[in-house]
Amino acid sequence: MSALSAPAALPLATDASDDFLGHPKGVYVCFFTEMWERFSFYGMKALLLLYLLQHHKFGDRAGLDVLGAYGGLVYCVPVIGGLLADRFLGMRKAVIFGGLLLVAGHAGMAIEGHAATVVNGVVTRDDAALRMFYLSLSLIIMGVGFLKPNVSTIVGRLYEVNDPRRDSGFSLFVAGINLGALFASIVCGYLGQQYGWRYGFGAAGIGMLLGLGQFLWGRKYLRGVAEPPKPLSRGRELAIYGFALLGLLPVAWLMHAVTAIQLGPSTIRWTYYIVVMALAGIVWTMWHGWRRTDGASVPLKRHAPSLLCFSLLGLAVIWLSQRFGVLDFFIEEATLALVLMSVVFLVVGFWYVGFVTRGCSKVEAQRMGAMMVLIFAALVFYTLYEQTYGSWVTFNDRLMGKDLIPSLVVREGAPWPWSIVALVLAPLSFMVASTISERNPGSATPKVAFLLAVAAMLVTLLHDALVLPQNAGSLTYLGSLFIVLLAPLFAVIWAWLDKRGLDPTKPTKSALGLLFGGLSFLPLVWAAQQAGATGEMASVWWLVLAYLLLELGEMCLYPVGLSAVTQLSVPRVVSLMMGTWFLATAFSETLAALFGKLAAIEVPEGETMNIAQAAAKYADLFTLLMWLGIGCAAVALLASPLLRRMMHGVK
């Protein structure tokens, strides 16, 4: 079973010696495996855009195109990897195969080749290094697709269905995700720009290699839950691996094609028309689900008036898009990746309309409609959120200070991050502690040693955040830092409100998430205005405030969305709807890149950037995204009473 569906109930052997700090040891194996996987993934992502702009001399538009296509595919492929593990490979083999692909991909990223040169406006790049770059991205995409969904599924299967430790076990696992992302930005982002790109990418690869070794060592603690659902012949297993490796070629080609192939205006125009009309059809389906009555089928002609109204609504949106230049912007900036994402959206949309109108009762149709609204809210939010690896990075690189407390920063001697030691020490301490606890179950030494290693991680993190010279890539750690700090606080807040009957509904929480997501751009608007007016770097604390507001929004919206998918979906399609959630996230990656190009800055050879003009561009983009988030939040808040009724008692 993949991470896209609920974990199955499995009979487990619950030997007390197999537990550690109140949880199965296999959970810690998955914790550190996922920590290293996220370390490698976010470490590479923190450097990706800056690497393209500075080393290969891509323009802002081309760099954002690659970033958007990469992020989109990373969230699409896990749907396939999860299904293959469900039906054939089992989670253990899928994780190992994905880990090997990731190690190979990050090793390839460390081959940076010669830096591009610009002579008389002509860019000369190392073509061999670029081909290796695209192949490496495809290896990482495919590796994440096999590894990520299946590690989380293993965690679910390590607990019995009614085990009270289940929720806290997943909380522990999520902490591993965020710790990996947190340390990734600091270590890889710092090494990549301080010592050279290959050091940052290489550190990400070494991290994944350590994570794979950790998983192989800990297989004995997985209690057999990660094995194939039925015996798998060697030939079929090799065929799956072979097809996955063959799939690397079209993925690598697509990563190249997003910048090399310019789609014709008519292709993009008609794609836009069809997507808008499909959205009108989905909205009609929700309206129909609200007004329908169970029982005898209604003749199609009875639906004609409402279908006509919603068709006219779609046509009005198209006319307004043409009137205000939105369609022209899409024609100019849309990429092959965005068009392909739109095709996937259309397939899912047509399936949804058919399923809800023909295969659901009235209550099921209304719950599915409410869930689709929440998924759309997540799409909007993550379109805003993914600016953190796009326009936020370039804005910080060009127009903001970097160090939180400059007086504490050590600038001489290029110090190495202390976090490297802690990252290795923590998994090793668990391995040692597990071995000691098996030999002497009553000893307190393993627990003490492990907790001391965790404390050392926090100390080294604080040191590196304040003492190391930060850069635009390393500062992306702020997002994960606020998640780690806010998660326990929000758990207490929601519980406190629930006891008093004041806990907001899921639609209201999603609206709050969009509101905070929009407001997170306000500090950056002020920062851009400050930089433009003074001609000096804006304070990095504007970025800190922006991240705080953004993560407040994520804590409101993300857990709610995942929970809603499992609660509101018709049980027989819950896996598919969870896949739709991830596809919406993939779509948001490409949309984020599209919006980011509104602030693209191309500085001609031999000239310096005009700070006032650049600041004005960023201020305009951030203002637009701020009002997009606030406007969608207002609509979501107004619709929340209706959505609550459509949920029919689901809390």
Automatic annotation (TrEMBL):
InterPro entries reported for this sequence: Dipep/tripep_permease (IPR005279), MFS_trans_sf (IPR036259), POT_fam (IPR000109), PTR2_symporter_CS (IPR018456)
Keywords: Membrane, Peptide transport, Protein transport, Transmembrane, Transmembrane helix, Transport
Residues passing through the membrane, by range: 67-85, 94-116, 128-147, 168-192, 198-217, 238-258, 270-290, 302-322, 334-356, 368-385, 416-436, 448-468, 474-497, 509-528, 540-560, 581-601, 621-643
CDD domains for the chain: MFS_DtpA_like (cd17346)
Membrane topology note: Multi-pass membrane protein
Entry's localization field: Membrane
Family: Belongs to the major facilitator superfamily. Proton-dependent oligopeptide transporter (POT/PTR) (TC 2.A.17) family.
Name of this protein: POT family proton-dependent oligopeptide transporter
Organism of derivation: Agrilutibacter niabensis
Lineage: Bacteria, Pseudomonadati, Pseudomonadota, Gammaproteobacteria, Lysobacterales
